[in-house]
Amino acid sequence: MNTAASSWEPSVKIPEFETRDLKRKSIAVAVAGNPNSGKSTLINGIAGTRLHVGNWPGVTVEKKEAVFEYRGRRIRLVDLPGTYSLSPYTQEEIISRDYLVREKPDVIVNVVDATNLERNLYLTVQLMELGIPVVMALNIFDEAEKKGYRIDTKAIEDMLGIAVVPTVATRKIGLDDLLKRAISFAEESPLRLPKHLIYGADAEAASRQIEDHLRKDHPSVAAAYPLRWLALKMMEGDSRVMEETGLDEGGLLGETLNHLRAAHEEDIESLMADARYAQASGLTREVMIRPAIRKMEITEKIDRIVLNRFLGIPIFLAAMWLVFKFTFDVSTPFADWIDAMTTGPFRRWAVAAMGFIHAPAWTASLVTDGIIAGVGFVLVFVPVIFAMMFFITFLEGSGYMARAAFVMDRAMHAIGLHGKSFIPMLLGFGCNVPAVYATRVLENPRDKALTSLLIPLMSCGARLPVYVVFIGAFFAAHAGTVLWSLYVMGIALAVLMGIMFKRTLFKGESPMFIMELPPYRMPSFRSLMIHTWEKGKHFLIKAGTYILAVSVLVWFLLNLPWGVQNKKDSYLGKAGQVIAPVLEPLGFGNWEAASSLVSGLIAKEIVVGTMGEIYAHKAKEDKKEQPSPTDDFREIGTSFLAASKKSVSNIFSTFGISSLSAQQDDESAGLKPVLRKTFTPLSAYAFIVFVLLYMPCVIVAIAMRQEFGTWKWFGIAFTYQMALAWSVAFVIYQGGKLIGIGG
Amino acid sequence: MMKLSMLKCGERAKIARIGAIGPLKRRLMDMGVLVGEEVTMGKVAPLGDPIEINVKNYSLSLRKKEAEDISVEVVE
Ligand SMILES: Nc1nc2c(ncn2[C@@H]2O[C@H](COP(=O)(O)OP(=O)(O)OP(=O)(O)O)[C@@H](O)[C@H]2O)c(=O)[nH]1
Ligand SMILES: [Mg+2]
Fold first, then answer.
1. Which residue did the predictor score with more confidence, A474 or A507?
2. Distance, CA of A244 to chain centre
3. In whole angstroms, how far apart are CA A315 and each of A56, A394, A413, B39?
4. B28 in contact with A, Cβ within 8 Å
């Protein structure tokens, strides 16, 4: 570890912390830096699990904050989104600068990737313009040293007028030092402001003129902003600043700007960027020594293979297949276990408890079939969401995610998507819910929205039971082909809809693909855990409450009016009767089919269960002997162990794709003869196609709502999918009749 | 002078002109793609687009369309 930081002595003798300036007991620390420089790891190293995740006002980008006490002070750490600059073009940049300019934190901790000093300093230089003390965390210092870089931290301090602390966030090295320096800089604020970067004589003159002008003629604007920053932004022609301040380019301001523009061929923006980079590269040259001979780096070696013209795509597909298999194979046994627990022992205990307190039958049913089933429903998703978040975090953290996007962008771009969209789409085949959450890998709101709209066309696992029952009843001889046709149809329609959306809803320039390909890095276990937990926590808390509420609602729908004997008279049955005529042209216009489809709103596999209930009048009661509570406990323990074992063994038996026959259980066996009476092969095919395409399930709806902060995108998905499902089923059924198949 | 996207793998060049305007130009500048900067052509994605360039000692990927308005001069 470099000792430059510890040998640093404050130039002014500072009295002990506790005795000074009690007005400043609360200190706001903004943590800013390039993407992937280690901000989150660093904050987590300082504040531990006190991190609070919310959303920035008005946008759904995550806001992470940690508040804690330190030596009698209240410290508030705010994790700003990673940015390369403070221009007003991306959501992340706007959030960062709005926070820095409006909330005026007491100190900025600038996390810098020491292995990539020059590009990181470009942001540092901009942060220095805000009139706030800056403390630099020279992070990933371990790797820089390993590469043989020698960085003179003292020189950076002297040249920029900021504090510099070498850190290794992953191993918590230097963090305490960093915090102390940040606090002292915050408390000695006016003395600790960074130096000004000089932009050249005429730019400086213009800046001074604008500052004077603002101070004199617009004192309220001048007081609300860091003045020099404001002047520089106006010179750059920053539209957002002009809009916000309500100033126009008339009068003195315009004169100054025009004068400067004329001198620089209109391009002040480049002039400023050049000046900042000149500063950054000049500084880098002065303070850093790189070894003369550069080894071929491991990243280059890996990229030779991974981005190879011939191997690139096969490797990518293999990696995706592994992620998919791991996500679903590792999580399924646990999901099954949770499912078995909530429908088994927990349900039995609840029934017993309800009986014990003599609860009326409808309350008992609400608790067991509504609430407990609802909780179970939420919990069943937990393993898969966490497993997926884990693998995605790994892909991101290792640096492969950017390569995946690089390899796939051409193909995805053709349907209006981003290279990274491939991953959420692929996960959609397992379950659409984690897939929607996986759109988080996309930074741009437009890419996120379009990807989410297409995800439901990826045939998820929950649709399989429906296909299986119908294929078993009607197409047993061609099971594979029919099943395959459904998946392919989903993909083909996604391509089609993608192109259509690109031309209509998402017209205009598609977002840029200018993206860093970061060096490969083995993510630390700690940071994997932190990020997985942060991503998954969201689902647990927010989506959990929603889903619970919805499943209670659905319970009411299914069971009210209380005590109906014939399902036809329940609200669900009535809804089915209303909808049935609409489905007539598709070949299944009866209330039974319609009601089943409505119940598929909760999850598509429920379609089969509802059909079973309606058609076969199957008795639902458990006739098994009631096990004792101790048996229950034993069952919970042993089955959890079994689930863990299964999960591990699944990793090794990667070809464990569940065969079709395994999916067929007794429940659906009795259903087949009834189905053969009500459906023809043609209408059966139209029906499963309809199930493939019609509306996303309610949990997908909630996931979309949560990710976008509005129901808008779900509304659009719902509408287009209904239209699509109806039209495609219509074409199949009527077309089939026309050419004389099935009839 | 030639287009950046026409460089061969491993070829080094100096950026002579950036024709892009607005957000694209700003983004390029923010990522270190400036007039006078030296870049090395890296890999081309298997499907022919995007491309990878090395600038300021790090790897940057961009679509050919985004690199279209960047003119370069090859350096030996
Ligand atoms: N070797 C090393 N790796 C580090 C260090 N700090 C962070 N990392 C790794 O760098 C990667 C990125 O860290 P994050 O904390 O996610 O970075 P971030 O700045 O929050 O990234 P964004 O939120 O995407 O802007 C992780 O894989 C970390 O394990 C460090 O000091 N040394
Ligand atoms: Mg982060």
1. A474
2. 30
3. 38, 16, 20, 28
4. yes
Cis-peptide, bond into residue A35, ω within 30° of zero: no
pLDDT in tens, A85-103: 998 877 888 889 999 998 9
Domain that includes residue B70, residue range: 2-74
Q: What is the CATH number of the domain that holds B6?
A: 2.30.30.90
Q: What Å distances lie between residue A213 and A76, A221, A227, A422, A617, CA to CA? A: 36, 11, 11, 52, 83
Q: What is the mean pLDDT of residues A505-533?
A: 85
Cβ(B39)–Cβ(B15) below 8 Å: yes
Write out pLDDT tens, residues A48-75.
866 776 666 666 677 888 999 988 899 9
Number of domains in chain B: 1
Separation of alpha carbons A154 and A57, rounded Å: 39
* Spacing, Cα A5 to ligand 2 middle (Å): 25
Reported ipTM: the value is: 0.96
Q: Answer whether residue A620 shows pLDDT above 60.
A: no
Task: Note whether A206 and A235 are within 8 A (CB).
Answer: yes
- pLDDT category at A458 given cuts 50, 70, 90 is very high
**Distance from the alpha carbon of residue A79 to the mean position of ligand 2, in angstroms:** 7
Which ligand 1 atom lies nearest to the CA of residue A37? 19
pLDDT, averaged across chain A? 83
Peptide bond into A696 cis (omega under 30): no
Task: Go through the domains of chain A in sequence order and give each one's CATH number.
Answer: 3-192 (3.40.50.300), 201-263 (no CATH), 315-510+545-621+661-738 (no CATH)
Contacts of B52 in chain A (CB under 8 A): 307, 406, 517
